[in-house]
């Protein structure tokens, strides 16, 4: 039974992937096809479009460029920028810089994980939050810092970080009650 | 009169855009027309967001920690003629802040002072005059000679002589050559290059065009971190403006020299700061370093000779050409010339961007400019050079900052991250932190680096969890030697540095962790336990509200509270909030 459901999920996923509109990525490939060494740039632009790199897109890029899917996959997994799973609606980038570390970022991150009930690199089941780490966001004098959808928050404490998350959650649930799903 | 706002990434993060919005709204409602200039970061990071009021006579008043309300107050005060508003003033042209006064700014000369999105602003500061001089009066060989006279060394970390690198690239011959700007600033705790790119992108472009002329390149590439979107945007604007003014493209300024620049965004791999890995990444491959020689100056991008220079190195070039190599060589110490930019952060009173002549002592930088330790605690060490560098203990603060003195301590100059640590920083934990970083960033090519860093990390984790064993320190030293000797690139060769320097200067802390299962700095969570002393707890309940893990229970009928240890995240919020007169929350054994 367990295996059956797992296979079914995989089937569903590939079905969803197959539904994906590949025309934008084909357009990018067309533009970049003759540029040497453009594979990373193609993947970057594809991720901008889909929010992540679905398997079907990776396969499509490999097919169109005439290279092995393993190579495309190898590059997509080498660089931390590339994501093979969709990100949450609110993407939390938690800074792992030295200045943040010595100012106690690790404890704040663990309380944040507790609050969201996910680990680093995961997305909450409701798809609202994903937690990722950044080597350094470069705003060291605001340490400890996190960035949510490009907006930086700092200096953080455990309470402040949780208050920010709860505020977003509250805003989200009230907009759902009001019937406005964005 | 005009207003200038510091809108680098850091200024925006601190709330600079809200200030901009408030000011625009206020001016509109009052019907005032006043120019609001957007500048990059001046480096007074501890005072962000910053607002400059510039009088017609050129006097500048800098206000710090500005928010929407304060910005309106400042506007009112100046318009009413009663300014400057002393309460928020942090620096002025008559009386510069201590932080800025003790600096010598060559690379940061324009950062925070000009509009980085305006080429005219840059030209008003003598911008592109070095390029004009080069194209009109100097041969490529003369340019290289000038840089050789200046003894400029690469600011990215390794400190190779720039003139020599250019010469080698030029002499490698061939039809085609590349100039590549390494803007893949990946050291955690370093943000100098970002600030330069955001605050003065044209200086980097000018340096690059001059470099291209010197080595004979027709094409340049800036490899910039994708985590720096604002830097990329400002570079794109700067390149477009330079093309429009004929400073890039065919026959630059009417000369025979043609050159253009493109930007390639990195995809998040620390190892790509290494030049051969950077080239692999530019070629669309996994960013893995290769054996040197051949050096990129002979065999670089697509096999052509390439010179790879750091952002800060290139930003020095226009100044050197304008003022002469000798003027640059007159600054700094015997072996290390010119100035260096440092990103001062950590437990420091006044953090930010610091540019000082080489040879300045660490003490002058940390106490004179940075104002000492923030917390009022004692300084313990300075971490320099990020994951490739090391920790310099407080006893050595009087050493001059130059390439040789720093490497004698076991640390390195690195790209310029300078993180100040106080007594509350655990050195074993810090070593673990950096090893965690290098282990994740190891590209996996060399076995010693791939597996060795993993084993070292495991040992350090064990020590931090109170499961260290006798012999662990020696094992760490042995592994370090193997990894340094047998790794291909700088990442692996220098990965053990944070561990080796902390063992060298703070061996007693390792021993306390291993033998006594204690963390003297009270940082290693596994070795700590927070308890509430029932005799001292007055039942005020402040800790209950502070606790993010909801694990403080009890307190009914004025009974004392207690902590459920299994749910405690050991964040220390209860310890911080418990009023001093009660001091009921304690960490036993410390």
UniProtKB/TrEMBL annotation, chain A:
Its keywords, alphabetically, are: 2Fe-2S, Iron, Iron-sulfur, Metal-binding, Ubiquinone
| Positions that bind [2Fe-2S] cluster | 95, 100, 136, 140
PROSITE patterns linked to this entry: COMPLEX1_24K
Task: Describe how the cofactor binds.
Answer: Binds 1 [2Fe-2S] cluster.
Gene Ontology MF, one: oxidoreductase activity
InterPro entries (UniProt xref):
NADP_DH_HndA-like (IPR028431), NuoE-like (IPR002023), NuoE_dom (IPR042128), NuoE_N (IPR041921), Thioredoxin-like_sf (IPR036249)
Cofactor(s) needed for function: [2Fe-2S] cluster
Which Pfam families does the annotation name? 2Fe-2S_thioredx
Q: Which Gene3D superfamilies would you find in this protein's record?
A: Glutaredoxin (3.40.30.10), NADH-quinone oxidoreductase subunit E (1.10.10.1590)
PANTHER family linked: BIFURCATING [FEFE] HYDROGENASE GAMMA SUBUNIT (PTHR43342:SF1), NADH-QUINONE OXIDOREDUCTASE, E SUBUNIT (PTHR43342)
The UniProt family comment states: Belongs to the complex I 24 kDa subunit family.
Q: What NCBIfam families does this protein map onto?
A: PRK07539.1-2 (NF005722)
Question: What protein name is recorded for this chain?
Answer: NADH:ubiquinone oxidoreductase 24 kD subunit-like protein
Give the taxonomic lineage as stored in the record.
Bacteria, Bacillati, Bacillota, Clostridia, Eubacteriales
